[in-house]
Amino acid sequence: ADVPQAALAGVLMYVAQRILRWRVAANVYRQAPVEFALILITMVAIVVLPIETGVAIGIGLSLLHGIWGSTRTEPIELAQVPGTSVWWPPSGSSAGEQRSGVLVAAFQAPLSFVNADRFKRGLSDLIDASEDVQLVVLEASNIVEIDYTAAQALIDTIRHCRDKGAVFAIARMESLRAQAALKRFGIADIVGAERIFHSVDAAIKKLGPGKPQLKKQDGMP
User: Which of 44, 71, 98 is the last residue of a domain?
Assistant: First the structure.
């Protein structure tokens, strides 16, 4: 009567030996300790609890880890790579160049309710810290989604930018879902189609300091 269960245990142990990649696990331990902890917790849960419960715990922890990462994202100010039209996060080896009166900022995560407040506070702080800012360009290549709460945060940020006397523009929003969200939540009308660009360089050439500006952004008082 015990033979089927013992045979199944042997099969599972054989499969486990083929599935486990010890070299990969060692690399994860050295390079990503948090992810290694998730692996260990999942392994223990599968052994101690029913297998479907252990797998569910592993999946749930992975999802929570991804959400936590999104909540930690902050808007960052970009700098122009010398001699090019590329705007890039500054690093220790290359600080980059800034344009007088221009703030180029990026948010490297989807915009959602989990990070909407951090986005609004972070970008507003960058605007407040910039002296004589006349143009704010949101480099949106990494914003692949915008939900309702995040849309309201973006609208509030645009209003804050206008209160500072600056023009707000969006560049490199490549995601079709994010573009649809701009229209669905009325942000495209507020910003104005003429202030949505394919590149940061195009936005600065069209709207930068010294360029003739439109009277106001559509849909804004």
Answer: 71
The CA distance from 193 to 131, in Å, is 27
Q: Rounded to whole angstroms, how far apart are CA atoms 39 and 22?
A: 12
Spatial distance between the Cα atoms of 189 and 168, rounded to a whole number of angstroms: 12
Which DSSP state fits 24? H
Q: Are residues 44 and 142 in the same domain?
A: no
| pLDDT score recorded for residue 206 | 93
Mean of pLDDT over the chain:
86
Would you say 107 and 119 are in contact if contact means Cβ atoms under 8 Å apart?
yes
Question: Is the pLDDT at 152 greater than 90, yes or no?
Answer: yes
In the chain, how many domains are there?
2
Distance CA 161, CA 128 (A): 9
The H or E element containing residue 197 is strand 196-197
Tell whether 177 and 114 lie within a shared domain. Answer: yes
Residues 106 and 200 in one domain: yes
Choose among 192, 193, 196: nearest CA to 219.
Answer: 192
* 97 and 13 together in one domain: no
Q: How confident is the model at residue 120 (pLDDT cuts 50, 70, 90)?
A: very high
CA distance 136 to 207: 10
**Which residues span the domain enclosing 63?**
3-71
Residue 93 has pLDDT above 70, yes or no: no
Alpha carbon of residue 155 to chain centroid: 18
- pTM attached to this predicted model: 0.72
Are 105 and 202 part of one and the same domain? yes
